């Protein structure tokens, strides 16, 4: 199936999204052929338009809840909205994407004997009792809450991955990704880093949910993608699961203050209610990634924030930030915005 040397045909589902677009770019730079399959729910054509002229890149509008018959050597299964605003917009579809999507992509991997990597999440740990979170921790997840469509969907996908591995010998890799940020997050994505930067650049209030003392560990996208690539290529391989994230832990309030400082913004902090089931702490134990494939993050928060601020500043200068009062927020769910992409399930209003 290999083309020549180490060149491979690689399927990236969710390839027009934030992480997927960076991954497609890196795979092409390594000489692989890339098939990007995306339904443009939260991803945009703009994220990958600079790749469209490359003859080794192919873009396919496809929903992973439907079967897909292609011939590939590797699959990165990233298709799934990741922002709470977006995955809660159509929670039934979110579970279907994780579960039916996993079944279809695993069925495909089984048929063509492809190695398949699942973009799982730190959300499988829920609101953790164990801190930092090692892969051996089974998590504390509410099965019936507003985040469950995502958390339990991803947990079920992990189950399917391991059962296809045990039952059918599928070559799997399960990566548990912790909060990742960087250029190409959508300005109305709704996640904390993009919200705060957009708010700070516009001089709007910085919306801190709850008292802002909940923590997250933020990984810059370049580090994360390097981790996924190394995990996929690691020989001898192992299925994982493996945490990929930056162990630097910050409160949400510290993040707000850092964004205000780095942007030189006049924004003030405005407190808003904490969404239900919002985890109080998050920090990856990354010793396994280090020992299995020599990976650790290198880009610290300040440096990563500067690069991300530059990106959003560019959008602001180009008049491409959303109008005032319409940056993403949890209450009232302002769903995906997709400049350049087509609407599939969400009313896109970019
Ligand atoms: P994103 O929303 O930018 O990208 C998701 C992509 O999947 C989008 O392009 C979207 O259009 C596509 N998609 C959604 N449903 C689909 C479907 N049914 N069929 C085909 N395509 C579909 O989010 P992201 O941050 O790039 O996340 C990518 C993956 O990584 C997701 O699976 C997410 O759960 C996982 N992850 C991300 C983070 C993070 O902090 N960024 C953390 C943990 C896990
Ligand atoms: N599938 C797919 N592409 C393939 C092979 C399978 O999308 O190349 C899907 C198909 O929808 C199937 C699912 O993957 O239902 C699971 O496949 P599997 O072979 O495990 O099960 P079965 O075909 O028996 O349902
Ligand atoms: N958050 C916030 N203000 C925002 C967006 C998010 O205070 O405008 C908080 C949110 O309540 C959570 C943390 O920031 O505690 C991370 O939220 P995000 O949606 O980025 O990801 P999560 O880790 O919750 O999936």
UniProtKB/TrEMBL annotation:
Annotated keywords: Cytoplasm, Decarboxylase, Lyase, NAD
Location (main, coarse): cytoplasm
Subcellular localization, as worded in the UniProt entry: Cytoplasm
Transmembrane segments annotated in the record for this chain: none
Region Disordered, annotated ranges: 323-350
Residues covered by the NAD-dependent epimerase/dehydratase domain: 10-245
Cofactors demanded by this protein: NAD(+)
Protein's name in the database: NAD-dependent epimerase/dehydratase
GO BP term, pick one: UDP-D-xylose biosynthetic process
PANTHER family: UDP-GLUCURONIC ACID DECARBOXYLASE 1, UDP-GLUCURONIC ACID DECARBOXYLASE-RELATED
Pfam families named among the record's database cross-references: Epimerase
GO molecular function: NAD+ binding; UDP-glucuronate decarboxylase activity
Domain of life: Bacteria
InterPro entries: Epimerase_deHydtase, NAD(P)-bd_dom_sf, UXS-like
GO cellular component: cytoplasm
């Amino acid at each position: 199936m290999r083309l020549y040397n180490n060149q491979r045909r690689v399927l990236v589902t969710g390839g027009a999204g934030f992480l997927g677009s960076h991954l497609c770019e890196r795979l092409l730079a390594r000489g692989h052929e890339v098939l990007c399959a995306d339904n443009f729910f939260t991803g945009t054509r703009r994220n990958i338009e600079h790749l469209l002229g490359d003859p080794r890149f192919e873009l396919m509008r496809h929903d992973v809840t439907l079967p897909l018959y292609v011939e590939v050597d590797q699959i990165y299964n990233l298709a799934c909205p990741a922002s709470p605003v977006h995955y809660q917009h159509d929670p039934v579809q979110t579970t279907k994407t994780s579960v039916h999507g996993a079944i279809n992509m695993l069925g495909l991997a089984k048929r063509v004997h492809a190695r398949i990597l699942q973009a799982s999440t730190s959300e499988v740990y829920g609101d953790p009792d164990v801190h930092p979170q090692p892969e051996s921790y089974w998590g504390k997840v509410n099965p019936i809450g507003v985040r469950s469509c995502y958390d339990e969907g991803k947990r079920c996908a992990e189950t399917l991955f391991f059962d296809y591995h045990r039952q059918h010998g599928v070559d799997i890799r399960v990566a548990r990704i912790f909060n990742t940020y960087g250029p190409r997050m959508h300005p109305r994505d709704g996640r904390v880093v993009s919200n705060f930067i957009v708010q700070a650049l516009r001089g709007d209030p910085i919306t801190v949910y709850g008292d802002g003392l909940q923590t997250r560990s933020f990984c810059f996208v370049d580090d994360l993608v390097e981790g996924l690539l190394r995990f996929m290529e690691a020989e001898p391989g192992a299925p994982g699961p493996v945490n990929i994230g930056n162990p630097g832990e910050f409160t949400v309030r510290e993040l707000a203050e850092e964004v205000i400082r780095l942007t030189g913004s006049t924004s003030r902090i405005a407190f808003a209610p904490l969404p239900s089931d919002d985890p109080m702490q998050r920090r990856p134990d990354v010793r396994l990634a280090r020992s299995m494939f020599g990976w650790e993050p290198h880009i610290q928060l300040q440096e990563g924030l500067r690069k991300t601020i530059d990106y959003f500043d560019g959008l602001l200068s180009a008049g491409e930030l959303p109008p005032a009062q319409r940056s993403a927020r949890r209450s009232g769910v302002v769903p995906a915005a997709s400049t350049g992409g087509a609407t599939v399930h969400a009313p896109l209003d970019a």
